Every structure is written in C-alpha cells, then in structure tokens.
C-alpha cells in the first residue's frame, strides 16, 4: 500500500534535514499538491515552535514536546500525496486539529513498523450533496401496526371466541395486523397452499399459527380416537403440523409464541427438535406424541431417517418460515427430502382417520418470506402446488406499489439515516453515537450493532467493555494467586474446581465505554462461533433486560428475531445484500412501534449505497437522513456548553489513543485486534456480486482501516497465523453454528458462502485481483467465521 501512510504520524527519529527544507510535491491533482505544500509549511513552523518550547525547558511544555525530545515526529513532515483520495481538510486544520496525536505507548513499543496515524487529517471527502428536503420529510404512519379501522377483529377473521378472547385478554393483542387480516381467513377456510409475503415486524408468525391452532382445536379425529371420548385432538392423535425455521433461535422463538397461544387450548401439544440436546431426549419427546412440531430442516431430516416414532402420516400443514433464509443457508436439499418423505409416508401408511371438523383434507404447505427472490421462487417450486400469494395490497396512492411483488420495503415509520465516515474515524464515530444514545436513561433502551464477522464482534465487545473486563480479570487473577498461595499450605484436593470464569470469556459485560454514572449499559455479544448455550442465554438476557442494553452481533441476529423494545439499529458494517439490510433494520420499528437505524458508509464508492437505501422506502427515500460525522463526534465527545469549540476532536483522539495503547499493551489484545481486522477485510470481499462495485475491496484503504481496529501496524505486516479452533473453521461447521447439527448436505446448495474469499465472482478478472489483494494483506487463516 503505497498510500497507506498518508496523514500518519510515525515514530521515526527526527531527520537531519533542516526543518525549513523546501519539499517538492509531485503527482495527484494540483489542488492536492497545493494543500500538501501549505500543510508541510505549516507543520514545519509548528514543529519548530514545539521543539523550541521543549528545548527551552518551558514549564508549559506538553506531552507533545516531550515526545519530540524522545524523537517522535509527524510523518506529514515528509508529506506524501494521497494516491487516489482527495483531501478533506485544509492543511492548517489538519495539523491544528490534532495536537495530541503523539502517544506514550509508541515510545515503549520499539517497533519501527508502527504507525500512529492522526485521526482527523488526510481523510477522503464525501461526494454526496445532502438534499435538505430529505431531512425535512414529514413522519409517516406505521405500515406494520395492528389495524385501527374498528371493524377488523380476530373473531371477524374466523377465529373462535375462545382464541380471540385469549389474544385480547391474555396476550393484549387488540386487533389483527394487515397481513393477519389477509392470511387468517384464507388459511382457516381454504386448503390451498399459500405464500405469505409481508414486511418485517408485521406479525407473520401469528398469521400462520392462529389458523393452524384454530383448525386443530376445532378438529375431530374420530369419536373413538381419544380416551376422553370428546373427539378432541390429544397428543396421541397424531402430528398435524410441522413448522420449519432456519435457526435454533427462530425455532425457539416460534415455539414460545406457540406455547403462549396454546394456553387456551391446552390439550394440543407442541414441541421442538432443533438439536443442542441429546437426540435421545428428542426421540423420547416424539415418542410421547406431539400435535405441532417446530424444527430445523437438518434435524428433522435426521429424525425422519432415524426415528421410528416420528409418524408423519397425519401431517396436514408444512410451514416454511423465513423461506429466503432457508434457501440462503442451503437447506434446499433437506427441504426437498422432507417434502418427498411427507408425501411418501402419507401414501404408504393406511389412510389416516377420516378428517372431521376443520382439519384440511390435504397437506397444506405455507411458505413465509419477506422477499420474493429467485431462490424463494425455487423453494416455492419444490414445495407449493397452486399456491395463493397472500400479501398486503399496496394502497392506490402508493407511488412504488408495483415494486411490492418482487421486492419489499422497510416499515414506513422507521427513521433511517446514513453517515459517511472516513475509515480512520469509524471507531470513534461508533463510540460517539453510542455515548450520545445512552447519555441519559430513557432516550434509547436497546440497540443492536451489526458487524460483518465474529472476530470483529469479539474485538468491539472487548473494546467497549475493556475497563470492566480488565478489572474482573485482575480480580480473578489475584484470587487465583491467593488460592495458589493457600494451596501450598493446604493439601491439594483433586476435586477442587478450577476457576476459569474470566469475564473476558463472557458474552455480557458492562459497556464502560459509553455508560454514564446514571445510565449503566450492558453489552451483549452474539455470533455463530459461540457455544449454543451461550447464544441462547445471551439472547434471552438481552430480550429480557429492562435496563439499557446493546447487542453487538453478526447477521445471526438479523432474521426473524423478535427482540422487544429495540429502538436503534446500527449497521456499523454495511450488510452483505440489500435484503440483509432490510432484515437488520427490521429488528426495530416492529408492529407499529417507532425505531431508528443508522448505517456507516465510507466516503467514495460506498456512497453509491445511498441509492439502494432509498429503494427501501415507499416514498423513494425522501425520509432518508444524513448524519454529519463531525456532528456525531461533537455530540458524543463534546463538552456541553462549549459551543463551537473543538474539544471533541481532542477527546476523540485521546479516546482512540487510549484504545490503541490498550491494544498494544497485551499480546492477546493485539492478536484479537489483528484477527478482527483480517476477518473484516475478508468479509468485505463477500458482498453480493450486484453490490461489489459499491463495496469493492480494491478501493479499501487498508492503512486507514487498521486505525478503526486500534492498530498501528502497517497493513502488510498484520499477520495472524492459525484459525479459530473448533468446527466454525469449516464451511459446514459455520452452517451448523447458525442452524442445526446435520446440515452438511444442505451446505452443498449454498451459493454464497459469506466470509469465504474463495467464492467465485461473476467477473473472473475482478475475482483474481480481489484474491491477490486479500493474499497480499491476509495471513494464513483458511476460514473465518461470520456467524
Ligand atoms: N395483532 C397484533 N397486535 C400487536 N402486536 C402484534 C400483533 N401481531 C403480532 N404482533 C407482535 O409483532 C411482533 C412481530 O411479529 P412477528 O415476529 O411475527 O413478525 P414477522 O412479520 O414475522 O417479522 P420478521 O419478518 O422480522 O420475522 C411480535 O412482537 C408480535 O408479538
């Protein structure tokens, strides 16, 4: 990277060259050359005065002066022009804004390849002109809220008075949402297959569960078929419905909703087979009998092959929830296998007890998806027969209504904004936003930060909780030492448990980086490489939390999860596809509630993503706002009442340097940061082909990006050998983490393996260049985990 040192401070020794030696500037545009020339002149003057102050023993000499005495000098003294990027700041500002960019830790490191980059200089500028109209857009009515037309009730949709009363009184659901109004009557009355398409947070789960419960509860399996003689369905009456979802988390969530509904029809029994427990227990559950089964495709296939007790001859509903994700995770083969087996078994077994009451005469397949992409259509082809397409009709005055068929939008009430943040400022801009969001209790209760890969999630978790983690680790270490001392005196007990409970290994810790004394925020981390038990408990803790909480996670939490009271979604790393974006931001603004989302983009090509963001609006993007980076930093780091002062720049710089020192002081921290950086770059290469012109790894400024990982290494020297241990180091293992144990067969169908730079691109020349770039900068980690 020839241009990786632009605007950097190096801990080189002072050159013998007189400070006022004129420098020749070549290359770049005339404006750049002029800026660089002025900048160099100004810096020379500044350094000369600092040196004077340092050598004259001026009592006001600050840290910079002492750093200079020790031989640190601003690398901009030997200016190099940015190769491709335009310079944002005028040179005077560049130097005056960063008087504190020298670091004590740099003195200690003795690493000649270490670079202390100045935060605020030589950052590329944004090309996007903000349309003031956008910021003045009027608020929009919620699009996924329960209907308030006064005539739509659950009873009017065909649900029994018992079920409707349960929804109203026990679950406090007063009226159906638009998609529930469209789906429930259809599935209650008709036996056709159905494709349900609706935006995030619109209540699709209840839309398919309620008709199933309604019909099973009203269904009779033949008068003699149960011990109670009332003809009602009992657990032994047979398995009537199978619901497939792509992840364990989603299965658990569906199961929880199901259980809450079944409280009013307690004779219907539901259960799950999703792995994470002994297969023996799952088999025992199946043997006892279930009427509704929630499962992941891999595990269900396994039981269909190996569990005699699983009788699917009575199955009347097969629901495929989150269809697009099922296909993305490569479950096509497993689903095809399940569909075929269901067909075969129902033909092989003797005719089931004649359906009576309201059970369907045939197997009804319901496919749910927020999108209607090609792969969802393919899933429809293999599973649906003459299906009805159930969706919320766009209103007549909907300008982009025609798009609804093959596309989907974000909830109308969601307030989306973007910030164009130069790579070097990313980390401080993230912490600034979080500081501001949690400045006082109540403004934001829960936020989710989406990050591209598991290593980077771990790094950011540690950065934001480092004070708490370090304090805890120190306490554990001293307790260990005390115990070791005691053990010398006491006879050693073999039974004594070893205390490995370092908070650093934990998934929940106080977010000291953006908590205040009045507003303590707990940070949670979630990704596919964590053990299942940790994933489950972390998610449950985040969902349950009544206190301010932040979840930093990969896309493992982007689909279908219904986490209460999330008011802010931050896409710190842009999503891998537009659909991912809509699913991520859909974790907020659910069921008519308000919510806001912010995405970080780099100046340059990534600004092209703004057009894609606009597409997720019904009004063409008039409500999309731009957040100014300086404003974000000022609000996060600035002292109240200083007005136009620049104290926030110094504070942001101090914060950044403190994190850099923390990273450097412990080899484990350094390795974690390097690993996160590497994984981030590898993940960057896996954006969908259609968006790779926007997220082009060839345009990533790796030197500047390293700063966002608190690294002072030159990009080419960042090498981490050895991959994460465990099964996430394989593609199949990565899928297992997200889904269920036996999904290897499914993985074969996976077209886009995120995080795997070996994925062929549509452009072979581009792919070769991309790989070369990755090879140049990446170490020998064969895989990394997106989770
Ligand atoms: N009729 C209703 N009234 C009020 N809240 C509702 C209603 N129906 C569903 N909800 C609530 O809306 C939230 C979102 O529901 P659900 O998870 O089913 O949405 P979804 O459409 O499946 O979203 P996603 O596409 O993100 O999975 C849940 O908290 C649910 O309890």
From TrEMBL:
Name listed for the protein in its UniProt record: ATP-dependent RNA helicase
Localization terms from the record: Nucleus, Nucleolus
Start and end residues of each stretch annotated as Disordered: 50-146, 476-503, 717-771
Record field: compositional bias (Polar residues): 52-65, 93-104, 112-143
UniProt feature coiled coil, ranges: none
Major localization listed first in the record, in broad terms: nucleus
Motif position, Q motif: 152-181
Function: RNA helicase.
PROSITE patterns reported in the protein's UniProt record: HELICASE_ATP_BIND_1 (PS51192), HELICASE_CTER (PS51194), Q_MOTIF (PS51195)
Residue ranges constituting the Helicase ATP-binding domain according to the UniProt record: 185-390
Assigned EC number: 3.6.4.13
Keyword Amino-acid biosynthesis: no
Signal peptide: none
Organism: Trichoglossum hirsutum
Location of the DEAD-box RNA helicase Q domain: 152-181
Record remark on domains: The Q motif is unique to and characteristic of the DEAD box family of RNA helicases and controls ATP binding and hydrolysis.
Enzyme class, spelled out: hydrolase
Catalyzed reaction equations: ATP + H2O = ADP + phosphate + H(+)
A single MF term (Gene Ontology): hydrolase activity
Gene Ontology biological process terms, A to Z: rRNA processing
